[in-house]
Amino acid sequence: MSEKKEFGDFQTPAPLAREVIELLAQQPPRYRAIVEPTCGRGSILCAAAQRFGRTPAYWGFDVNASYVEATKTALDTLEAHAATIEHRDFYLVDWKGFFESLPQPFLVVGNPPWITNAGMSAIKGCNIPLKSNAAGLAGLDAVTGKANFDISEWMLIRLLEAMEGRDAALAMLVKSVVARKVVRHAWAARLRVMDAQIFRIDAMAHFHAAVDASLLIVRCGPAIGAARANIYAQLSSTIPPTSTLGFECGELVPDIAAVQATLHLRGTGPVKWRSGIKHDCAKVMELRHEGAFLLNGLGEQVRVEPDYLFPMLKTSDVANGSPERPTRFMLVPQRFLGEDTEPIKTAAPRTWEYLESHHDAFERRGSSIYRGKPRFSVFGVGDYTFAPWKIAISGMYKTLRFTKVGPRDGKPDVFDDVTNFLPCPSEEAADLVLELLTTQAATDFFQGRVFWDSKRPVTVDLLNRLNLKALALETGRAVPFSRQFPAPPPSRHRLHRQVKVKQTESLFQ
What we know:
Blueprint: H1 2-6, H2 14-25, E1 33-36, H3 43-52, E2 57-62, H4 65-78, E3 83-87, H5 95-100, E4 106-110, H6 117-122, H7 139-143, H8 151-163, E5 168-175, H9 176-188, E6 193-201, H10 203-207, E7 213-220, E8 228-232, E9 243-248, E10 251-253, H11 256-261, E11 274-275, H12 282-285, E12 286-290, E13 293-295, E14 301-302, E15 309-313, H13 315-320, E16 328-331, H14 344-347, H15 349-357, H16 359-363, E17 389-394, E18 403-405, E19 414-415, E20 419-424, H17 427-437, H18 440-447, H19 460-463, H20 468-475
Parallel strand pairs: 1-2, 1-4, 2-3, 4-5, 6-8, 15-19
Antiparallel strand pairs: 5-7, 6-7, 8-9, 9-10, 11-20, 12-13, 12-16, 13-14, 15-16, 17-18, 17-20
Helix pairs in contact: 2-3, 3-4, 8-9
């Protein structure tokens, strides 16, 4: 079982292998060589040999020596002509040099590992490429989790780069999110990709895996084709595609037709959507009412001053509608990123004592965003955190439900880090924004851009693409008010520094 985890080992069942090969056989060209870089026990190569016969040359590689022997035996039984199966590590193969030696056209086919680099590290696996920021992310994106990538994503990008300019095709069984990232990379890097297709498969039926998966087919050639990929609901090109994936204004979109119809609503404004507070210490920082007491996630009774305690909504609360009374509270030891926390010691001694008593829990936080920061630091905090009114939406739930959230007992609600929110200076502003976001025009805008099979389908990046001023003009709503955000709730220890509050002349200007 540990080997299966380390190698992301989901062996392709023979019926699925035959379906994949049959689909490829129905589309031109006629391949002179077929390569499987991670062949496993050989079900895909065997299906290819049964369908294409002795004409193509067959190549298979795998890091698992027992799988190599199993594949050799299976192909020997089929008497496949020119079948070369070798025990080799994908990461050590010179793929560009290898492809240069092959007759064209050739097919690179397979089922690469279904595991992320973070997942591999968690099980201390060693079958992983040299660590790098594979997505080319910079700054905060790279340290807050976006730099995590699927091993198969890294593999397929390397294969496509090595196949550049050759008469060849890539056909791989991967997670659907990986298929999208790979074609996005190809389009953004201007690789000579002629066309691409994505065919949905039932991963639960074939692999007993609860994940959205697909067969990705990318055809390379001498020129760059349109940045489009038809999406099919099943392994058949005889039925119409359900939608067309596209690349528009530097962004990958699931429905290019819907996106082009709402391009006039795309833009940015001075007020940005934000994510909630990230602290990676929920059992200490998040408290709940139990009778007259507050309890933490460890079951301990907690007595702290109210200065740093704020009503909190989890992402499930936002998705299901904000409750009338808060059931949870969050300790927020900072009013802005990097603020010194030492003054808490004198301003709120019980709070400081409580945080100190759980010092080890904070030290165990693995994310690099806390390194070199003041003790008990959090991330994703600023003036926007303390705006009195907010429009919030869960990043995890697969629905476009926007919720208006207001202050409770004079304090603003705060959110967990998988909730997204737009700060509003007044209830009037919040009402108007909510009205705009629930129009059909806004729904059409988001539906053309959101990938509902993603782990977090509704992202800050997605929300910030909508220009609310353009939406107001589109729907005949008034462009609202001039207000400014109030200062964060006062704290006795902040006499040494006043936070400059951002002036917002208008929400949309």
